[in-house]
Please model this.
Amino acid sequence: MTTSQRDFYAILGVERTATDAEVKRAFRKLAQQWHPDVSADPAADTRFKEINEAYQVLSDPERRRAYDTYGEAGLGGGAGGPGFTGGFPGFGDFGDLFDAFFGGQSGAGVRRGRPAAGSDLRYDLRITFAEAMKGAEKEIEFPVLDRCEACGGTGAKKGSAPVTCPACNGRGEVRTVRDTMLGQMINVTPCPRCRGEGRVVDDPCETCRGEGRAQRAKRLRVSVPPGIDDGHQIRLSGEGEVGRRGGPAGSLYVAVSVAPHPALKREGTELYYDLDLSIAQAALGTRVSIPIVDGEEEIEIRAGTQPGAEVRLRGKGAPHLRRPGARGDLHVLVDVRVPTKLSARQRALLEEFAAESGEHVGKGGPGGSGIIDRLKDALG
Ligand SMILES: [Zn+2]
Ligand SMILES: [Zn+2]
Model:
C-alpha cells in the first residue's frame, strides 16, 4: 500500500492552476506515449496506470478540490493506492483515451460507431500539350460504387431501417477487461457484429444485399486548369467510392498525363527550344521562325551569335498554375552546326574566307600545306 503523497500535477506535468483543457491535453499526450500497447518501455504499465490515476482525479472538479485540500487522503482511497478497485475505475471517461488514440480532434483515422468512408479512386486522363497550356473541360466516365438508389444507401429493405447493434450498443467497439498484476488492462477492438459501424441491418435491401451501394457508371466534368503538368493530380473530394451503408464517399484523383510537344521541352513554367544555326547564320545574323505555344513566331538572331547563346522570349512559356495570367518564358537555346558536306564552290569560298583571315586550313602542318608546297620550298 502506498502511503506517500504523490503529486498528480507533477505526474501529468501541469501547473496547479491548469485548466480542464490543459489537464486533458496533457493526459492525452502522455497516454499516447505510455500506453503499454505502444510503449516498449518495461515501466510503461506502471507509468500508464499512474498517469491514468492522476487524470481521474484532476479531471473531476470535486475530486480535484478534495485532493488540493487534503491530498490523497481526501480522495477516500478510490484513486489512491495501488491496484484498481471498483467496477470500471480505469477509465472514467473512456472517450478521452479513445480520442487520444484515434485522432478525435483531427477527424482523421478510425472513428467507430459510424460507417467507414469509401475508397479513393484514380482516373488516368490524357490531354494534349495545347490543352495543358489553355486549360480544358473534359468529360470522363468511370465505374464506381455509388449509393444504392433502392434503399438510399442504408442497406435496409424498403420500409425498414438499420438498428443499433445489440452487441456493442452502437459504440462500434468492444472492450475486454483483463486482470493483471498491475491492475486491469482494457483492450478495445472494433465490434465484429457491426464491423465498427454501430448499426446493423436485420432486413437487408435486395438490390444491394445490405451493402447500401451499387456499381454504376458515373459521368463527370473535370476542369483542367491552364498550366497543369504531366504527373499532376486533380482531387475531386466526394466523387470516389461511397462507403458501406451510407458511409461518406472517398475522393477521385484524376491523374493527368500530358502528351509532349513535338519540338518544345517543358520544365514547370519554362519552355525550351533547341535552335541549330549554320556558321553563316550565326556569323551574319538572321531571322528564323520558331514554334511557340500557339503557333510560330519569327525571332531575330544577331550577327555574331555564339554556340550556347540563349534568346529568351519573356511570357511565352507555360502558364503558372497558381498565378492566373502569369506565364514562364520560352528559352531558345542556340547551337551552331559545322557543315560536314561541302560542294566544290562552298569549299572554295571557305578556303577564301580562311585565307582572308590569314588562317591555315586543310591537312598538313602550319606554314605549308600539301606536298607540292614542300617540294617548292625544297627546290627553292
Ligand atoms: Zn440497397
Ligand atoms: Zn456492434
Remarks:
- DSSP finds nine helices and 15 strands in the chain.
- Residues 148, 150-151, 155, 205, 207-208, 212 surround zinc ion (ligand 1) (CB under 6 Å).
